[in-house]
User: Which sequence fits this backbone?
């Protein structure tokens, strides 16, 4: 009986991936990003080790959304910790004012809700336009 070899942290190689979001569908792009952050596209995927890549997304403000109802009606909620302290932000406002936060919130929902998931989310870098400071890592 053969088993898949379990990867150790020393064997993991993490690359930097640049994704241009201009003209791409938001949900499909986020699914691809979450898969790469988690490392599920690699043959040595191990669930308890962070084996994903670093992902840099540029032109986040130029992504497209399917369905007119979703972008108009979807809201992201957060709680301040006080009674009645729920703050809601519409998806349209987030896309125009802070697309980086929109991408992080959507990706966070697809990653594990553990310390490992939070570490994976830190490897996501999102920029509203084409300028980014990670050109040295991508080379």
Assistant:
């Amino acid at each position: 009986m053969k088993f898949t070899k379990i990867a150790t942290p020393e064997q993991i190689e993490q690359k930097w991936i640049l994704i241009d979001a201009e003209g791409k569908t938001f949900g499909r792009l986020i699914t691809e990003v979450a898969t790469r952050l988690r490392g599920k596209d690699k043959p040595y995927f191990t669930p308890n080790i962070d084996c994903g890549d670093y992902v840099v997304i540029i032109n986040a403000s130029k992504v497209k959304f399917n369905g007119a109802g979703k972008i108009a009606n979807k809201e992201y909620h957060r709680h301040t910790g006080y009674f009645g302290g729920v703050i809601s932000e519409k998806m349209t406002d987030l896309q125009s004012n802070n697309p980086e936060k929109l991408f992080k919130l959507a990706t966070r929902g697809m990653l594990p809700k553990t310390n490992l998931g939070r570490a994976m989310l830190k490897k996501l870098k999102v920029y509203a336009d084409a300028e980014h400071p990670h050109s040295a890592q991508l080379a």
About this structure: The helical segments are 26-38, 68-73, 91-97, 99-108, 115-121, 135-138. The two ends are 42 Å apart (CA to CA). The domain at 16-65+96-131 is CATH 3.90.1180.10 (Ribosomal Protein L13p; Chain: A;). Residues 26-38 form the longest helix (13 residues).
